[in-house]
Design a protein that fits this description.
0% strand, 49 residues, 65% helix, mainly alpha, 3 helices
């Protein structure tokens, strides 16, 4: 899959609300000071695989 295809998959996850849902589900797993949004990280890892 091309880079453009992975970007489209990540954007689709954002549009259907998957990214915020994953962030909510993992809310207690990170410190507030962390700069990364857990849902976004999970989406990026899933798309990369």
């Amino acid at each position: 899959m091309s880079h453009a295809g992975t970007v489209l998959l990540a954007e689709l996850a954002d549009r259907i609300g998957l990214t915020p849902l994953l962030s909510e589900a993992t809310d207690g797993l990170r410190e507030r000071r962390a700069g990364h949004v857990p849902g976004r990280v999970l989406i990026d890892v899933a798309v990369g695989i």
